[in-house]
Amino acid sequence: MELVFMIPLAGLAAVFYAAYLAWDVLRRDEGTPEMQDVASMIYEGAMAFLRRQYGTIAALSIVTAIAIGVIVGAVSEGVKDILASGGSVTYGDRQVSPWEEGGLTAVAFLVGALCSGLAGYIGMFIAVRSNSRTASAATRSLKEAITVSLRGGAVSGFLVVALSLIGVSSIFLIYSEVLGNPKSIAPFLIVGFGFGASFVALFAQLGGGIYTKAADVGADLVGKVEAGIPEDDPRNAAVVADLVGDNVGDCAGRGADLFESMSAENIGAMILGVSIYAVTGDLEWIVFPLVLRSFGILATIVGLASVPFFAREDGKQNAMTPLNNGYFIVSALSVIGLFVTTNVMLGDEWWRFFLCGVIGIATGIAFVYITQFYTSGSWRPVKEIAVASRTGPATNIIIGTAVGLETTAATAITISIALVASFAIGAEATISGDNGTISGFSTGVFGTAVATMGMLMSAAYVLSMDTFGPITDNAGGITEMSGAPESARHITDELDSVGNTTKALTKGYAVASAGLAAFLLFSAYLDKVKERLEIPLNDPLPIDLSDVDVFAGGLIGAMLVFVFSSLAIRAVGSAAGDIIEEVRRQFREDPGIMAGTSRPDYGRAVDITARASLRNMIAPGLLAVGLPIAVGLTFRYVREDNDGWLAVSGMLMIGTIVGIIMATFFNNVGGAWDNAKKYVESGQLKDDTGQVLGKGSEAHKAAVVGDTVGDPFKDTAGPSLHVLIKLLATITLVMAPLFIP
Amino acid sequence: MELVFMIPLAGLAAVFYAAYLAWDVLRRDEGTPEMQDVASMIYEGAMAFLRRQYGTIAALSIVTAIAIGVIVGAVSEGVKDILASGGSVTYGDRQVSPWEEGGLTAVAFLVGALCSGLAGYIGMFIAVRSNSRTASAATRSLKEAITVSLRGGAVSGFLVVALSLIGVSSIFLIYSEVLGNPKSIAPFLIVGFGFGASFVALFAQLGGGIYTKAADVGADLVGKVEAGIPEDDPRNAAVVADLVGDNVGDCAGRGADLFESMSAENIGAMILGVSIYAVTGDLEWIVFPLVLRSFGILATIVGLASVPFFAREDGKQNAMTPLNNGYFIVSALSVIGLFVTTNVMLGDEWWRFFLCGVIGIATGIAFVYITQFYTSGSWRPVKEIAVASRTGPATNIIIGTAVGLETTAATAITISIALVASFAIGAEATISGDNGTISGFSTGVFGTAVATMGMLMSAAYVLSMDTFGPITDNAGGITEMSGAPESARHITDELDSVGNTTKALTKGYAVASAGLAAFLLFSAYLDKVKERLEIPLNDPLPIDLSDVDVFAGGLIGAMLVFVFSSLAIRAVGSAAGDIIEEVRRQFREDPGIMAGTSRPDYGRAVDITARASLRNMIAPGLLAVGLPIAVGLTFRYVREDNDGWLAVSGMLMIGTIVGIIMATFFNNVGGAWDNAKKYVESGQLKDDTGQVLGKGSEAHKAAVVGDTVGDPFKDTAGPSLHVLIKLLATITLVMAPLFIP
Questions:
Q1: For residue A648, what are the CA distances in angstroms to A517, A552, B362?
Q2: Which of B523, B657, B662 best tests the A interface by mutation, with the highest count of A CBs <10 A?
Q3: Whole-Å CA distances, A327 to A21, A331, A502
Q4: Higher pLDDT, B279 or A555
């Protein structure tokens, strides 16, 4: 247990570092009064939305927590001596009653929800105060602008990781040491934390995703298309809502998404560690994920601090280069941290798990390249879509769809290789202890868990790059609206384009980590089923793959992903409609707006967007939470006792796989369409005679159609699916007692 | 065995009825010389493509048959006494050697391929001779036009069903009676027949689907969009290719698709019947599917003959009404046939299986209504897309996608209910015989098999309605190109719109039947695994659902569906490009074409389309055939022995489910976009002020974009996925010996 001291150390280091960064950003120049004016409107709009959104989420969370307490308390027969069949450890006299289990799960749920909300709130608070400072810095140099925006983003990144680490560790400590539950039971009791994180993430991502794209699509349709005014034009009443939207979607939404991935991965890995702990009696196997995460935080602090050193003062470089270099430093340091941690904590065959972790880190890097290949204008896929735009919007959509469908190949193959290789390496390990020897399935799944942890070591860095996106996007908008000099606009444009890339990368990273984490949670769910059915953890469940209930559950799981996506996409259309109505009304009722003599009522547009988004997130949210429970109960009570958990297994497994694949499709096709439009705008597309087809050409119009279609795909449906995958896993894990006789 | 005489009786009845219909159609008036002129160009183009396509398929089939023979012969250890572990029946001395198994499978493959090809060829031959006769009839009355086109389509429908029944029965009879193999082994030996049918169907549907949409999209883009001439204008060199395309996609392609569904369902059900035969010793359980199919044929003959009686002489009715009435007659007679067959053949608890069959028939009817709801202009979904067209192509695509994703709910829930209910009812049956008693899993799966059979009893009727589609579409084109009177054009327009509905219905029906048939084949695959691993058929396989190989196989299975769709969609774009080039060249080189003084070279356009389609079908075809084998071999040899069949199980199960869901999405979204365009064209869409937004409006242009995007979705990717699902199942069933140690 030598390295356990690292957990509080790294947690505090992350918090202090975030505080330092926040102080550093806030003390900087806020820019001209015009900049501050725009920024304050964004700030107010964002905070108003966040208060309203988290208010709604808080109310839903409290109701859900009570429901969890009652359901688990009333239904569960108590946490049995879960390892009775797998080993022969004794845990003293402590017994957990059903109501206690329900209560503890409910409390963990609330703590998880609270930590996630807190990380999102503070991160956003800093992000929307970094934008005008970035705009101001852009009037001076690229280097300073990068530094400010990345630091602003890093506050969010570090808080998310720190609060996940501190939250999971504290609640584990309290539930085991303070309340005296056996350490092998505590991981099962804290799954509520993961569910709480999923729950907040679902609504944060859904609400934020709907808001951001409704505002974007609404502002574009009513401004660029109907009124014929440019993007970010201050006469458009929806323009502030659009700038607010970038924050609530990419900063708060993605933050909650990765908060959940990390928490779920930590808890899932701890549960899987229990079966090895049962054999060895070494607590290392349970707390290992927390220690490794701590090393990841330290690696990230160093990597992030190194970025300004890679930025050239004269600005004559691709702005992505310093960020990439920082990422490689984080990865390299992570490998070292992984080496130390596995070596010290994981027994004689530590090197096998070290290799598993390296696979995870490599997977993270691979996804960075795969995403770039499919969504950046330098490669075949985006060019192909741009060329298809020459024959109109229909061919742009057809070829774009074909490219998007194709991108799933690299994702599926990379995740499969990572899973199978880390499993195979882990399964070779033989771990002996006082209570026997363990090998094969349990150590294999633990290997995949270490791979997931390895990948997520760089989460804080990736998240910093992600939040960098909305900050630079906002800085661009502020520069435009405040009439700043051309040179500043040039710098923010460049940063904005880098921000688009980092946002796309984060989504690829989030999908991959969601896939790996979901596999862990799926294994944890089956462990829970075995525990209740009193089947040894190392034995397979006696079910037939061709069981009709598994198949039917699978069909419903695949369908859930599709229908959830449909609701999310439609929500954008519906909320955008409300915004369009409002902007049209303002144009109609005050002709001074169009003439530039009076200022539109931005606040009202922001408010209407917020209401519309929150209203529209309810239906998909309820579907995601309700359908797994409905399926489990229906199959258990209408069919037979055992069919409840069987149908849920099928639903979970196939829902996860289809969710990964569909999220990949949505994210990549949206990114590719976006960049195909940028490719056309940059004048790189030519017709057969060599004539450039740039802005304003028919080809450009066709490319804009693709870009608009891609918006709700890549910023609403895709990211919401990451969350759905993990929510499915945590909800079934928490509610499992309902489905098992 | 009282009813076995029905099999040859119904087979011959179907063949004679088809011959009578063909004679009746061919003796009718061929129309004016202008009509005959156009029709003969279509006829020549279609036959040229078919010869070329079937030539390619034949070559591929022969290579594949040899490969199958060698692989199965060399790898297999021979068909073991498969029931040794499940019962104690003895089969005499007959033993099948590995090479014999390989040879018999290869021969069955070739026979299956041949029957499928023959059905497609003759059906097409009549269909392309019915179009001018329909056009001619349309100059006289709606009733006569319906009669001719439906009879022309029915030739194809009956031949497909008859050749499937005769093919499966004959090869079963020869392999068991003539070659002396035990009747319990013969069903396993004839799976090659199903694989052959799948193989032909894959290429027929892919090649046909690419051809039809490449010609359609190409003709539209170069004609309507570029040159500004109307649809079916004789100056467009691609117009004949477009008319040919309707036949090769909807007639030959869909015919091969349903031929495969029926053959696969028959063989799968016979394999499942073996485990009951082992207990009872009653051969009824094996031949039941063939007898039930025979009753379906008789019901269809009566139903089809009744259609003209429902058509009013004055034409004052919805042309869909007579077709719907005929379908209800077929369904009612099918219930009676089902009652007789189950009662006579399936022992004391026959009524349980009768109920299962009724569930299947009801599922078929349900899909007719579900498809209509989502793709017809009378309901909310299509209207919603039309309204979204008012704000441009982007919102049309966004809302269309949302609607398409939503349609998967009804499909998934209906198929799930049908599967689970028929399984539950079947599982209640207890069947006793000389060799013990069987209940639960085996009788449950047999119940789902009976449901599938019940649904497919009406296949010939549905297929007749489907082929009715291209015939009426062609009749419309012929009427237009030959300058026939306005009244005739009015009748063919109405028939064409009915044809669009029947084509959409057939796809819904084909998805549902593919889903049910694939579940049977999945069970059959696992039976084969159990047989080789010497696990009793009634026991579950000892594998963990969270097995990493199953999960990875599943990811790859889901990805296969996406990448296959991508290739199919892209193939359309690529082939369409070739056609556009050719039409442009003809316009450029002969200005007389546009002036209407010289005739374009239709034949060359047809030929280029054919070459391009066949070239483009190779990549997706090879992917579909090669990937399952590659996955099985990789996991078996790179991982461990048992991981081959495990990964293939995951791939098969999740590929099937994702295939059903994606096919539903593609078919329905395409149909909905198509009809949203028609809705706008019919003048039903209005703006906020009540002004009609009809043909030529911006909303109409937006709706056309959706329609064009939907074309390769609904006519290439979607239908090809039906075939992919079943191909996956048959290929893994035949190749199973490769993946199992």
A1: 18, 10, 27
A2: B657
A3: 18, 6, 11
A4: A555
Q: What is the CA radius of gyration of chain A?
A: 25
Q: What is the DSSP letter of B178?
A: I
Each residue's pLDDT tens digit, A664-674: 999 999 989 99
Secondary structure element (H or E) that encloses residue A437, with its range? strand A436-439
ipTM entry? 0.91
Hey, is the C-beta of A56 within 8 angstroms of any chain B C-beta?
Answer: no
Our CA-based measurement puts residue A442 at a distance from the nearest CA of chain B, in whole angstroms, of: 11
Bridge partner list, A686:
A692
Task: Give exposure, B597-611, as e/b (b: 16+ Cβ within 10 Å).
Answer: eeebbbeebbbbbbe
Q: Which of A59, A195, A175 is nearest to A735 (CA)?
A: A195
Task: Give the three-state DSSP class for B690.
Answer: coil
- Which are the contacts of B272, defined by CB distance < 8 A and separation ≥ 6? B442, B445, B446, B449, B520, B523, B524, B527
Using one digit for the tens of pLDDT, what is the confidence trace for A356-389?
999 999 999 998 888 888 888 778 899 999 999 9
> In sequence order, which ranges of A281-392 are alpha helices (DSSP H)?
284-310, 320-345, 350-375, 380-388
Closest CA to A571 of A608, A616, A605, A623: A616
Nearest Cα residue to A352 out of A267, A270, A229, A449: A449
A-B C-beta contacts closer than 8 Å = 243
Between positions 388 and 427 of B, the ones with CB within 8 A of A are 388, 391-395, 397-399, 401-406, 408-409, 411-413, 415-416, 419-420, 423-424
CB proximity under 8 Å: A 530-549 to B: 540-549
Spatial CA neighbour of A621 closest among A667, A576, A560, A665: A560
Q: Which residue has the higher pLDDT, A225 or B45?
A: B45
DSSP 8-state code for residue A389: G
- pLDDT, residue A27, reads 92
Three-point CA angle A125, A129, A130, nearest 5°: 115
Q: Does A658 touch chain B (CB under 8 A)?
A: yes
* pLDDT, tens digit (0-9, with 9 covering 90-100), for A439-488: 777 888 889 999 999 999 999 999 898 888 889 888 988 888 888 788 88
B531-549: pLDDT as tens digits: 777 777 667 776 677 788 9
Is the Cβ of B630 closer than 8 Å to some Cβ of chain A? Answer: no
In DSSP terms, B159 is beta-bridged to: none
Are the beta carbons of A247 and A185 closer than 8 angstroms? no
At residue A314, the pLDDT reads 67
Q: Of B102, B45, B47, B54, which Cα lies nearest the Cα of B200?
A: B54
pLDDT of residue B37: 86
This prediction has a pTM of 0.92
Rounded to the nearest angstrom, the minimum Cα separation between B519 and chain A is: 8
Secondary structure letter of residue A439 according to DSSP: E
Weakly modelled stretches of chain B, pLDDT under 70: 1, 74-98, 314-315, 537-538, 542-543
How far, in Å, CA of A156 to CA of B50, rounded?
Answer: 62
Nearest residue to A35 (alpha-carbon basis) of A483, A467, A349, A447: A483
Q: How far apart are alpha carbons B735 and B528 in whole angstroms?
A: 10
